[in-house]
Amino acid sequence: MNRFRLNSQPSLLALSCLILSIPSVLLGESNGTKIVPEETNTSIEETVLTEQKKQGTSPPTSKALGNDFRIRITHDKLDKKTFKLELQAKPSAKSTEPSLDQRINSFIAPITDTISSLVFWAPAVPDLQLEIVADSVKNLNIPQNSQEDGIVLEVLPGLTIENLKEQLQQRSKHLRVKGVLPDIRPLENRAGSKNNWRSAANGKFVVPCQSTVPAVVLWLVTGAIIFTLYLRFVNFRYFRLAIDIVCGKHSDPTDKGEVSHFQALSAALSGTVGLGNIAGVAVAISLGGPGATFWMIIAGLLGMSSKFVECTLGVKYRKFGEDGRTYGGPMYYLRDGLAKRGWGKMGKIFAIFFAVMCVGGSLGGGNMFQINQAFAQFVNVTGGPQESWAQGYGWLFGLVVAALVAMVIIGGIRSIARATSKIVPLMCGIYVLAAIVVLIARINEVPGAFALILSEAFNPQAVTGGFVGVLIQGFKRAAFSNEAGIGSASIAHSAVRTKFPASEGLVSLLEPFIDTVVVCTMTALVIVVTGQWEVGASSFAEGVSLTSDSFESVIGWFPLLLTLAVLLFAFSTMITWSYYGQQAWAFVFGRGRQADLTYKLIFCLCIILGSAMSLDKVIGFSDAMIFAMCFPNLIGLYFLMPEARRELAIYLSEIRKGRLAAPK
């Protein structure tokens, strides 16, 4: 695969972070079959030596296998009820000296793991821990000349979760299963991805064999369904009216507020249309298969109603400072809205909890995830993980971006709105146009891609997640991308110039449609029609790399265009989320120059941290923070949704009476 290389080299800087206290929020995880090492008389060395003889190579430096193995499990196309297991000797690292990026990652990883485990806690299920372990043979010869792909030691087709233990015992020279299989037929879930080798952790490899539905996903989806029904499908009935409002109809520029409807939508979109649309979709398809796309679209359509309720309330309960600045968001409607109903103490607790989680979300999903995947794409176009001069210098990339972000966020929401109103249309246009070119090039495969997405949504292949697994991945990544029910977007929308809260609520329902139904679907189609989701063309493709490989498979220079889109997506998302986090920070610690400066400094430091950390640590922390925000927010929305419906009735009445220009 041709890569564009840029030449240069850099040097040093690092870290500091805050830890947020979080209660145990229920979110189920996959219980697994773990794959571990066997004391066996059969040496893996013999297999490697045989391979070397075939290739005419001499034995290189000896190396014990230990934890240095990885496994790929893929769906067997010849028999859809089974899967294929491939064992590979993992290549040794290029250097034994850890880079600054690696040191930062090892320092921060325990922190993010702890936070993630608290938020995503689920009760343990006994007797579902099966481990596949590598042979603990000493002096295994692993060729040093195969840094990227390693050596495949054995391939075992025709496996199922039920026969795995028996088959490995009979057929495998290097692996065995420890543990007890469940008596009931498990919900098979994807282990690894079709284009991705998964390395062992501590010498153990987990094959997920049962899924529990995450409580947070149920919480968000249930809320979206309730709001859709309660508001009588506001997401569909007033879609055209929402477009009219964005175009300037029914607007009075003299109304109190800081930005126009279009600017508020652009600012909020820049917080949602980000790397979640590019990397997040790739993660969903890698883990859940193409069927996850369908459930992402459904979640996006339902989420439009959630967005309407929270943004209507955000405008209704906003506050104006002496300097004319607007302060709004869930913190205010949770505190003041619930106080009106006699639950002032509960409202304050919910508001503070939300604000703390929002600060964490701004540092995680709104910051570290964005810069992490932007840097990953930069590495892709400068040679790839094995050859790029930038590998190991993520901190420097983060430092440059942190300086650019700081220049914008100093100016507050007006500065952010001006920047995003220019960046958002440009970045969406570039990305959607690039996706359209790819789809036109593969136009004959588009109908098949839609058919595959639909069939996999309801009847997924055994190893691509099972129905529950596919649904979970679709809803989870949609929620991470469009933030409907999370409450964050109401912070940006509360700054709009209007006297009718429902007017901005209607504008806000366009967000999940643009973000998930349009942009996420385009990404998913590109990945599916190019076949990169199932072709092992890029051994290390994950997140944005999978999307990049999909674009590159059609036109070689597309990754450069994608890199520009990724940088714009990441930059705009970071500056918007910095505003969200700053507003939440001010709610907890008070308003003032010193408080603002402290938050902005922490935010910029986290840009450097995120660029140096590994994706799994970043996404675990990001998911934990953002999903934790929805618990207090949705409780407040349930109690206050009658107010949102009343505001909608008032606004529509004004239009019907002719006091506002009627829509076309």
Automatic annotation (TrEMBL):
<protein>
    <submittedName>
        <fullName>Na+/alanine symporter</fullName>
    </submittedName>
</protein>
<dbReference type="GO" id="GO:0005283">
    <property type="term" value="F:amino acid:sodium symporter activity"/>
</dbReference>
<dbReference type="GO" id="GO:0005886">
    <property type="term" value="C:plasma membrane"/>
</dbReference>
<feature type="transmembrane region" description="Helical">
    <location>
        <begin position="212"/>
        <end position="231"/>
    </location>
</feature>
<dbReference type="Pfam" id="PF01235">
    <property type="entry name" value="Na_Ala_symp"/>
</dbReference>
<feature type="transmembrane region" description="Helical">
    <location>
        <begin position="349"/>
        <end position="372"/>
    </location>
</feature>
<keyword id="KW-0472">Membrane</keyword>
<feature type="signal peptide">
    <location>
        <begin position="1"/>
        <end position="27"/>
    </location>
</feature>
<feature type="transmembrane region" description="Helical">
    <location>
        <begin position="597"/>
        <end position="615"/>
    </location>
</feature>
<keyword id="KW-1133">Transmembrane helix</keyword>
<keyword id="KW-0812">Transmembrane</keyword>
<feature type="transmembrane region" description="Helical">
    <location>
        <begin position="392"/>
        <end position="411"/>
    </location>
</feature>
<feature type="transmembrane region" description="Helical">
    <location>
        <begin position="423"/>
        <end position="443"/>
    </location>
</feature>
<comment type="similarity">
    <text>Belongs to the alanine or glycine:cation symporter (AGCS) (TC 2.A.25) family.</text>
</comment>
<feature type="transmembrane region" description="Helical">
    <location>
        <begin position="513"/>
        <end position="535"/>
    </location>
</feature>
<feature type="transmembrane region" description="Helical">
    <location>
        <begin position="555"/>
        <end position="577"/>
    </location>
</feature>
<feature type="transmembrane region" description="Helical">
    <location>
        <begin position="621"/>
        <end position="641"/>
    </location>
</feature>
<keyword id="KW-1003">Cell membrane</keyword>
<feature type="transmembrane region" description="Helical">
    <location>
        <begin position="449"/>
        <end position="472"/>
    </location>
</feature>
<feature type="transmembrane region" description="Helical">
    <location>
        <begin position="292"/>
        <end position="309"/>
    </location>
</feature>
<keyword id="KW-0769">Symport</keyword>
<feature type="transmembrane region" description="Helical">
    <location>
        <begin position="264"/>
        <end position="286"/>
    </location>
</feature>
<keyword id="KW-0732">Signal</keyword>
<dbReference type="InterPro" id="IPR001463">
    <property type="entry name" value="Na/Ala_symport"/>
</dbReference>
<keyword id="KW-0813">Transport</keyword>
